[in-house]
Amino acid sequence: MPREIAERGDAVAALAEVFREHGYSGSSLARITQQTGLGKGSLYHFFPDGKEEMAEAVLEEVDRWFSEHVFSPLLDPVAPGRGIERMFETVDRYFRSGERICLVGVFALGDSQSRFGARINRYFSTWTEALAAALKRTGLTDEQASETAEEVVVGIQGALVLARSRQDPKIFSRALRRLKRSIPVSE
After folding, report:
1. What does pTM read for this prediction?
2. Which residues have a Cβ under 8 Å from the Cβ of 161 and sit 6 or more positions away?
3. Nearest to residue 132, comparing CAs of 119, 151, 117?
4. What CA–CA distance (Å, rounded) separates 34 from 69?
5. How many CB atoms lie within 10 A of CB 115?
6. Which of 48, 50, 49, 57 is closest to 11 using CA atoms?
7. Domain ranges of the chain
8. Which residues contact residue 27 at a Cβ distance below 8 angstroms, ignoring those fewer than 6 apart?
9. Three-state DSSP class for 185?
10. Closest by alpha carbon to 28, among 62, 57, 55, 58?
11. For position 1, what pLDDT does the model report?
12. Per-residue pLDDT for 104 more than 90?
């Protein structure tokens, strides 16, 4: 029997895990109802425009969460080193030390790229730009900060994929430590 979820946010959290595991195309309505425990009526109550609205809501929630917990601390004008440190800590927790794949990455690599490309690009651009801004405030040149930020985001995403493919989350933890050590922070 489908479970009762009274809040749209609870539905979004359940949907996120389905999309994370199966991507957009692999998340059929049947699979969504089965894995979330929500009936079709509940889903369409919260998301009248169907699966695309569900995916948009999930991506919007990821954007909101990362803006609050990762991007905003990087923009702290007083303590950029602390913002960078917090980014690494938060990313480690969010991705469960490499046991959780990046949902935006799943969308970026799947055939939903054309449908959600602008949102996906904005997520990664915002992350690299916020990190580059923090790095610049630590004394790096514009070019050094941009290149380092790109390397860090690429390293995090690549480590998630490699950890998942090898079923070894320690790969992610080791990569985060190396990336963190590679940043020449001088506050």
Report:
1. 0.91
2. 101, 105
3. 151
4. 31
5. 16
6. 57
7. 8-181
8. 18, 19, 51
9. coil
10. 55
11. 43
12. yes
φ and ψ at residue 150, rounded to 5 degrees: -60, -45
pLDDT at 138 over 80: yes
Rounded CA-CA distance 34/140 in Å is: 50
Q: Please name which of 37, 45, 36, 46 lies closest in space to residue 14, comparing C-alpha atoms.
A: 36
**Cβ(21)–Cβ(99) under 8 Å?**
no
Burial of 109 (0-12, 13-18, 19+ CB in 10 A): middle
pLDDT at position 186: 52
Q: What token pair was written down for 90?
A: 């938060």
Helix (H, G, I), strand (E, B) or coil at 102: coil
One CATH from 1.20.1250.20, 1.10.357.10, 6.10.140.1670, 3.30.43.10 for 8-181: 1.10.357.10
Task: Say how far apart CA 172 and CA 161 lie, in whole Å.
Answer: 9
Q: What is the pLDDT of residue 4?
A: 54
- Reading the block at residue 38, the tokens are 């929500």
C-alpha distances (whole Å) from 91 to each of 18, 109, 140 are: 20, 20, 23
Note the pLDDT of residue 10: 86
Residues 153-167 have pLDDT tens digits of 999 999 999 999 999
Radius of gyration of the chain from Cα atoms?
18
CA-to-CA dists, residue 23 to 67, 75, 111, 180, angstroms: 23, 31, 9, 30
